[in-house]
Design a protein that fits this description.
180 residues; mainly alpha; 6 helices; globular
């Protein structure tokens, strides 16, 4: 089950980056096609990941209950990984609600994109970033990658730049939306 989850996570990261780049280009005013298909496949994989992670978390909670000791302080990073994943659910649902009913007419424009919606989308980017950052090391370990420290830093740099661009795309779109 853990191997399936690891493969699912890699697919999610790749599809998420494709979706986010395509979505950012749309928010910047460029015409991008087939983003809905990528989004739906990614969402399916996110649901698979959520299900597997929930099962693994329940197993962990049962083991903690059986042993009678939680060692919460020693397992803080484990809980950050689990909780940060569940935190993504709220802004993700908001993201789907905001962007689901988009027409294919140019220019790309939502009917409503308020300050609250902008904040929710920046929170989505930040919560995904936190979840990915806290899970890089175990993901690399699950694939048997040695010397992951240098690779982690490179990966973090690329992701930081990407997530900055994604958040910036929401902000630029908001500014353009407010001006019209």
């Amino acid at each position: 089950m853990r191997r399936l989850n690891a493969v699912t996570v890699i697919c999610i990261v790749v599809l998420l980056l494709i979706h986010a780049v395509a979505g950012s280009l749309s928010l910047f005013g460029f015409s991008v096609t087939a983003n809905k298909i990528v989004a739906r496949i990614c969402m399916f994989l996110v649901l698979v990941h959520l299900l597997i992670s929930s099962i693994l978390t329940v197993r962990t909670l049962k083991a903690i209950h059986r042993s009678g000791t939680s060692y919460f302080k020693g397992n803080e990073l484990f809980w950050v990984r689990r909780i940060s994943g569940f935190v993504i659910i709220i802004p993700l649902v908001m993201h789907i609600a905001i962007f689901m009913n988009i027409s294919n007419v140019e220019p790309y424009r939502l009917k409503v994109f308020t300050t609250g919606r902008l904040i929710s989308q920046i929170f989505l980017v930040a919560s995904i970033a936190l979840h990915v950052i806290s899970n890089i090391r175990p993901a690399l370990i699950s694939y048997g990658i040695k010397g992951f420290k240098a690779l982690s830093v490179d990966f973090l740099l690329v992701l930081s730049i990407a997530f900055l661009v994604f958040a910036l795309a929401f902000a630029v779109y908001y500014i353009r939306w407010m001006a019209i």
